[in-house]
Every structure is written in C-alpha cells, then in structure tokens.
Amino acid sequence: MKSEAQSRRDIVEVCKRIHNRGWISSTDGNVSVRLSRDKILITPTGIHKGYMSERDVIVVDMDGRLIAGSRNPSTEMVLHLTCYRERPDVNSVVHAHPTMCVAFSLAGVSLAKCLLPEVIFTLGSIPTAEYAAPTTVDVAESVRSHIKDFDAVILARHGSVTVGTDVFAAYNTLERMEHVAEITFHARQIGNIKPLTAAQIENLQAIGEKMGWPKKKIITDMCNSCNACGKFSACPTNAEAPLTPAPGLNASVEELIAEEVRAELMKRSS
Ligand SMILES: [Zn+2]
Fold it and tell me: What is the CATH number of the domain that holds 32?
C-alpha cells in the first residue's frame, strides 16, 4: 500500500491527466483512493480538478464523515463509497465525463457489444447504468449492480465510473473505455459495424486464460444497437432509440452518385 502523501500526489496527477484529455471541465469529476479499511482519500467539491493541490484532497470514513481536510467532500462521494463496498478488490474509483462515452449514451447507443479483442481481455462488456440525477444517491444505486461485475460503467447522460487496484489502473480503464467509444464512433460513420462472433469471443477468452488474465464478463442477452443484424430499428429493446444516421452518413455509393447526378442536371437546367 502506498503512503498517504504518495496517494495525494497520484490523485493530483490523475486529475490533471483527465482534465488535459478534456474528460472533465471546470469543477467536474472526482477521484478517490482507499487508504485503509475505513479511510478514503477523495477530491473535494467545488474545485477545479486540473489545478488542484495535494493539500486540497480530504479524508473521509466509509460513512462519508470528514476525518481530515478543510473542504467538503465530492458531491458524488456516495458513488465512490458504494463502489468500495461492492468491490473489496479495488483501491481507487475515478468518475469523469468522457466526451464520446457521454455522447453515445445521449444517442441511446450502448457500447456493450464486443467489437475489439483487447476489450474482451481487459474490460469485458461496457454496460450503461440507467440515468440518475447527478449528485444524488440514485447515481450510486444505478451503478451498484453493474460495478460488481465490471470495472468500467457508463452513467447515462452523465459520465463514467471506473475502478482499479490503484488510481492509475482506474485511470487507464477510463482511457481505454473512451478509446473504444472513439473507435466505435468512427467505425459507425464509415459503415455498419460487425461485432466479434461468439466463437471469436470464446477463442479470445481461451487465450486470456492461458495468459493468466482474469476472465471478464460479457453481456450476451441484449441487443446493443450495433446494427450488425440489420434489424436494429425493429428490435424492441431499442424501440425508443432508433438508429438515425446523420444525413450523408451510411449512404450507399449508388445514393451518393445519384445525388451528384441530380445536382449536375439541376445546374445544367438552370
Ligand atoms: Zn459527474
């Protein structure tokens, strides 16, 4: 276990990284580290996390009572405490507002589908917790069932929560999750995306097992709006969030040529 002084430095460093990546703005986001069974270091509320000092970080107990520090704890403290209660194996919780992940949740598109081999190895599925008003205890409740099985969860219309054995592991998971979202965003613009098949996933899990990596849970019983089946809009699971590509996106080559021809004819006739 690292010293408290080192953990304070680590929290400040990770907050700077998250701010530099543009995944929090102003006073958004919060980061915590478990110091002992009953002591949590956590960022305070109402402070810009990109320019915070080690002295600003406070200590609370598992009931959220202030033990050390002069500032008030993060407004999402209950979310952090819930993650520690549900996951005795983790020592850090990071909550941020990663741009692509939040955008996907606003569009009603899940990132739970298995697309990239490294995600099968490291995260498993990336579930989205139901919308809950930020700063309320409902955020913690919406995450509770997911965080038991997953290290990375998207909070609908809000942000992300990632956990790890230390603060850098929790940050790395956030970085990976946002990277997946970014790749998925670009792939969806280029064309329809195909998830890994069940056989490919099984093969990857077998490789992971040989490497001694802990097996990650995969969600298989839901439509994840990847549109790979071509029946997305008919899928009852997604009836409220049909796939509506922006004009010009996903248009076939024939449609694009037809559009150009039409524009050319209009020009000539005018
Ligand atoms: Zn937030």
Answer: 3.40.225.10
Q: Per residue of the chain (270 residues), give pLDDT as tens.
A: 799 999 999 999 999 999 999 999 999 999 999 999 999 999 999 999 999 999 999 999 999 999 999 999 999 999 999 999 999 999 999 999 999 999 999 999 888 877 788 888 888 889 999 999 988 899 999 999 999 999 999 999 999 999 999 999 999 999 999 999 999 999 999 988 888 888 888 888 888 888 888 888 887 655 444 444 444 444 444 433 334 444 444 455 556 566 666 777 776 665
> What's the DSSP call for residue 63?
T
**Residues with active-site annotation:** 76
CA of 103 to the centre of ligand 1 (A): 14
Domain that holds residue 53: 4-211
What distance in angstroms lies between residue 29's CA and the mean position of ligand 1's atoms?
Answer: 5
Distance, CA of 36 to CA of 167 (rounded, Å): 14
In angstroms, rounded to a whole number, what is the distance separating the alpha carbons of residues 91 and 167? Answer: 7
Is 270 inside a domain boundary?
no
Asked, for residue 81, whether it belongs to a domain, the answer is yes
Residue 155 bridge partners (DSSP): 129, 159
Task: Give me ligand 1 centre to Cα 97, in Å.
Answer: 6
Distance in Å, CA 95 to ligand 1 centroid: 6
Give the relative orientation of helices 77-86 and 137-147 as an angle to the nearest 10 degrees: 20
Model-level pTM greater than 0.85? no
